[in-house]
Amino acid sequence: MRFIEAMALPFAYPFMVRGLIAAVIVGAVCSVIGCYVVLRGMAFLGSAVAHSILPGLAIGFLVEGQDDRRSLFWWALGTSVLVALGVGAISRRGRVREDSAIGIVFAGMFALGIALISTVRGFAVDLVHFLFGNVLAVTDWDLTVIAIFGGGILLLVVLFYKEFLVISFDETLGRTQRLPVRFYQNLLLVLMAVTVAVSLQTVGVGLMLAMLVTPPAAALLVTRRLPVMMVVSAGIGALSGIIGLYVSFYAGIASGAAIVLVAMGFFLVLLGVSSMRPRRRRSPTEAGTG
User: Most CB atoms closer than 10 Å: which of 105, 110, 124, 219?
Assistant: First the structure.
């Protein structure tokens, strides 16, 4: 009876209900997009996009002021999309390697963000929420934005699943099939950037990469089929959000950190289980079958 009461107690608070819904949506969306991040080796790009949001937040704060926090989301969204597309454009020119382009943009945007933040009095305190997340502060407006954009991201992944699959494993095949490869590459970058902006309130900039990489990496330990990997990854992400929020509520620790730690726990458990199973040789493209 006490266990049931303990499980039901958080639902007595509206902010916990909003937080749980937001954590489930963000956990699932990050995990699905994260499958492409892991399979395509885009983890560094995900980190760069997440940290490049800082100058967008600082500019939004300077232009709109502290009272209009809703507008900060749009500034963060615009900045993340521009950075993702910018890195893609630079790396495709061939003169600069992709990892170098990401590093240059990452360092430059992060430095610009710090420079702008240092000129704004009082913003340093608010910055803590953006760096580490504060899912318990999610408002009805935030929840609406998360649901709309999160649902849109998942819908686009379903609609363009085959196209994303082709460009992720064999771009040459996509070109021979006359697919607009560059369009789908940019679309995938935009989806990742939107995911980062949407997840900002929940896990924050500093922990964003963990939610993009950890659940998909855990799912990859148990399956090599991309559709199954996405389902397992989304389940791990959603459960991490729920359990992490309960841990945050009862242990009194930061919600974003709790969610990431739970996801890490899932990864370690699955890693231990997978290490006990006999190994078999797998084809490098096996994850694309389904």
Answer: 219
Which comes out higher in pLDDT, residue 69 or 147? 147
Domains, in order of start, for the chain: 2-275+284-288 (1.10.3470.10)
DSSP collapsed to 3 states, the chain: CHHHHHHHHHHHCHHHHHHHHHHHHHHHHHHHHHHHHHHCCCHHHHHHHHHCHHHHHHHHHHHHCCCCHHHHHHHHHHHHHHHHHHHHHHHHCCCCCHHHHHHHHHHHHHHHHHHHHHCCCCHHHHHHHHHHCCHHHCCHHHHHHHHHHHHHHHHHHHHCHHHHHHHHHCHHHHHHCCCCHHHHHHHHHHHHHHHHHHCHHHHHHHHHHHHHHHHHHHHHCCCCCHHHHHHHHHHHHHHHHHHHHHHHHHHCCCHHHHHHHHHHHHHHHHHHHHHHCCCCCCCCCHHHCC
41 or 125, higher pLDDT: 41
15's CB contacts (< 8 A; 6+ apart) are 136, 137, 138
Query: Which two tokens mark 171?
Result: 């771009």
Chain segment 207-266, per-residue pLDDT in tens: 788 889 999 999 999 988 899 999 999 999 999 999 999 998 888 888 888 999 999 999
Give residue 234's pLDDT. Answer: 95
